[in-house]
UniProtKB/TrEMBL annotation:
InterPro entries: DUF2278 (IPR019268), Lamin_tail_dom (IPR001322), Lamin_tail_dom_sf (IPR036415)
LTD domain boundaries: 210-315
Pfam families, A to Z: DUF2278, LTD
Official protein name in the record: DUF2278 family protein
Lineage, opening ranks: Bacteria, Bacillati, Actinomycetota, Actinomycetes, Pseudonocardiales
Superkingdom of source: Bacteria
Amino acid sequence: MPLNSYGVLSARIIDVRRETGGTPHHQIHLVDDDKRHYRAAVNVESSQQPSDLLYFAADNFQHPLTAALPPAGSGWNKLASQPGGAALDYLRANVVTREQMRPVPPDAEGPNNDLADFLDHYVHRAQQDPTATAYIYGEPWGPEDTPDKIFGSQPGNGVHNIHMNQGNGEQYQQDDGVWQDGGLLLHLASENRWVAVFLAFQTQAWHTDDDTGHALPAPEDTSIRVVAAMVNPIGGGRENETITLLNTSDHTISLAGWTLADAQKNTMPLPVPAIAAGQTLQIPATNGFQLGNDGGQITVLDPHGLKVHGVTYTAEHTSTEGRTVQF
């Protein structure tokens, strides 16, 4: 079953502490516009082997979900675990791939070489910026009857599971679900810029069931990539919209049974029998497949319906007519 509750916290960062011990966390103290206090407990180490977490940060995060987020400073906001809103799903919203993430130790000698250092870099930056708002995805806890055990605010109140929450092994499979992933987004309003931090456990699978979030076998071949799209052609004719694929492997790949899917899960078959090693393929978007100018998704599915690759673009990406969006 999925998390007991899911949502996003919108508040300002006022303090941060590193926690050590058996289950270390990066503890973040936040306050919303109504002066309610929260603690975000960010995992920096796994209790299972390998213990180092997977980490990726985007310094200039651009994604349609930022437009759906609740108002800055609004506190805890419960979210429906479904597409089309502010809910986060690493896989289905195409926000991060396994290839982008790297394992990092929780704490290590020296500067800028461990997860605590990386989190400090972004969290302290937001703490020092009066225009910055943190959006922290996960599962809430509290309010508690006692003061918070880290920062002493009362009542104890906060959010945890600030990491991918699907594709777990048997021990934590009960937490699996779709559109309920955790993560940290920072809006630096003075710079009109978003920063995103995504975390996952090395034991989690990166192909999961669309209903349960449970782990699925990986596709046999993951070498097909979406590298570009003509979303807003000159004149606006849908018949001129195209998607460009690249075969990154060293062998020809049969495309029999392969499809492309858009954000609404409309699909279209790939029209050629195969793509040679290192070659690109430009495919016209057929009727029913939507490349909307307000933002969208393109996902490559193998003959078994497993996701091989996916990209997301925003309205800003398509604002110039006739310009190819490059991924």
